[in-house]
Write the structure tokens for this entry.
Amino acid sequence: MSVVQGEAASGAFKVNSLSGLEEADAGSGRLVWDWPRSIWNMSFIAGALILGPLFFTWSGFAVFLILSGFTLCVGHSVGFHRRLIHHTFDCPKWLERVMVYVGVLVGMGGPLWTVGLHDIRDWAQRQENCHWFLRHGKPALLDGFYYLNFRLVFDKPPKFDAGPGISDDPFYVFLEKTWMLHQIPVALILFALGGWSWVVWGVIVRVAVCFTMHWYIAHVAHRRGHQDWHVEDAAVQGYNIAWLAIPTMGESWHCNHHAFPASARHGLYPGQIDWGYDFIRVLAWLGLAKNIQLPANLPPRSAITPLTDRALSIAAPGQAELSGKKG
């Protein structure tokens, strides 16, 4: 039986939706053309490059900024990532569904696909033999070409189940089947309010930029940058990329996230902007979020090593001793 590195199989830092990890192989698989997503992605990129300049207006650009920020923060960063995938806080089910719907409007995929994509990558990157497709080690343009057009089929895949409340939620199943169609009502509303410029910049350019940026931050934040923590035995490390903190709503503090995946806060140290966490704090102030998980109230983790003097300042009591260092 193989060893599952990175505490991915059990405990507070396990990958929630996967099982059978002892038999799964993170290093062996083949790429296949993911034709529906490839056509979707390439069509939006071509549309953005061609139509964006032709229909540019400052009001359309403002719509692009507002909708991109809203959907990425509320939908992708908080709804998809920090709530649905990592369960870093509790909230009413109706609010979770609203945030997940906003996440669908980002235009990258449905909720079940997003959970599966994230968790398989999370598990594989913690192993010593992670497949090259998930290492983001190739040059940027080549890595982007593969990421936006292909998918990895493992020879020995883990078992995937998004879990109760997600995979058996009729609304999420509906969104999974229809996620591409939900740009249509947005386009109709924008056309009624601002004409074709608002449609092009509020839908076509926005979706193209958002899914491209999602790949880009995954590429950049797994290659080089600042680290406060090292994840032991992992093939791929996360790095903190300060200049991407605002457009990613705090998702670019990726070393922090690799070290504490169950934390609702990614920007853990002074000066690290994290608008996703700020939104969760607003929800808590309104009484809509509770049981917010942070490194200080998570169990100490054995698979991480502090690299800087400040690293342990945000960790739980006992982390210094478990890491073999004193704070």
Remarks:
- The CA atoms of residues 39 and 214 lie 17 Å apart.
- The mean pLDDT is 95.
- The two ends are 36 Å apart (CA to CA).
- The longest helix spans residues 58-85.
